[in-house]
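re: ur question from yesterday

yeah so i grabbed the chain u mentioned. its 511 aa long if i counted rite. heres the sequnce exactly as i have it in my notes:
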Amino acid sequence: MAATAVTTESAANPFVILSAEPPPLPRAERGLESRSPLMPQIPLQDGEQYRFHFDMSKCVGCKCCEVACSEQNNNPAEISWRRVGEVEGGVFPFTQRLHLSMGCNHCVDPSCMSGCPTGAYAKDAKTGIVLHDADICIGCEYCIWNCPYSVPAFNAERGVVGKCDMCHGRLTAGDSPACVAACPSEALAIEIVDIAEWKSKYRDEANAPGLPSADDTISTTRVTLPADMPLHTEKADYHRVKPEKPHYSLVAMTVLTQLSVGGFAAAWLLSLFGGADGLGTAALLSLALGLASFAASPLHLGRPIYALLAVRNVKTSWLSREILGLSSFGLAASVYAAMLLWGAPGAPAVGGLASLLGLFGLYASARIYLVPGRPAWNSRQTIADFLLTAATLGPLLPAAVGSEYGVLSQAAAPAAVAQILNQLWRFLRLVRSEEYEKQASARLLSGELARLFLLRLGLLMLGAVALPAMGLAAAGFVLTLAGALIGRYLFFVSVVPKNMAMTFFERREAA
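ran it thru and got these structure tokens back, copy pasting raw so excuse formatting
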């Protein structure tokens, strides 16, 4: 403990006494009311952790904190672990623009940690800081989807994500984080927060215009708003909506796995009624498509070579469960195919087990996307979308490869109609929602992406209903598959993430 100077003066004899310990602080000054010094010099007690405090009334939008963060962490120019955004409000001519500075909120219940398939995130037991281990990160980007603030940032050069760790190394040395030290107006500070007390009052002090609700993960960042906050304050970039990354490898992987499971289950069910010609071929083709999609699935990872690490967090990550379920399906389906070739008894039971494992894998795959940070995905209609895709494509595959069960192709029609209704109902819910992100997704689907949305529904009706009724199962399968791929593309690009307010002018990367 560094020596602390305590000064005592009298008219005759001023003097200075050096004490080895700092003077005791009242409990109130350790908690929410403490804003000085910018970095507390007292140890944490049980049930406490560090947190950021941001004073909006002091922030001038200079972005010194953002620059200092990037320099401290050696990040490229396009990646910001701390971001400065803008909010605006008021009634003309009395309008005002204010600034937000946000890094990681080191939440009480961090969704990035529960969703990570490799366990790369951990909440430090001593400080409460949410830490990220880049050595075991595979770059799947699911933590970005899980975080309602979109705090983690993907570094394409390294193939991993990264995020603010409150300059953990500086903290252990007794220094404040780089952003806090660089702020010229002292708008940022580090405080100690009592978690139990914070849970009862965070809604009043963690929420602010331009930020997602703190309810999703119980953000610990305390925000002080100006006393004269303007009316109707909203994000400066409120009206700027653009499509998200398409994730083409995930488009192909999810559709092909659903086709694989659906085709295998359809072939297995019909084999129970006589083992007609063509069903064994359909089962083998379904298995081959599934294995191909498994092999291609690591392509969306930043570090594909470490893909096997994705099964480490089966306890909380639906991605780990998806991999386990679909891998088990592939193994059981392979055993089933071998038993059919050799004429071994018990094949139907193994086929049933494979079908159940495949359905679990599809359910886990859909659950990956049910995250608060992506409101348009976060509904049971996503689960229905994935399962109905399997139910539509599955019966068409055996019919397309020449099964004598021609009526099988018509079994896809009810599932296709249900899928169309599911998509239309989802769109109507987005339109009618009061959530900004859902309304923005509806805006994309009815504007920039409208033609693709209508094409997807038309291909589904033509390929899965009209053509099979005319005996054109193969053509119907091709069109239905094309419609499913377009639909999954729209699924990824039309989602609008929760995020903090950004600047009015969009930053353009250098060519």
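noticed a couple things. Residues 1-36 have pLDDT under 50 and may be disordered. also The first strand starts at residue 4 and ends at 8.
anyway ttyl
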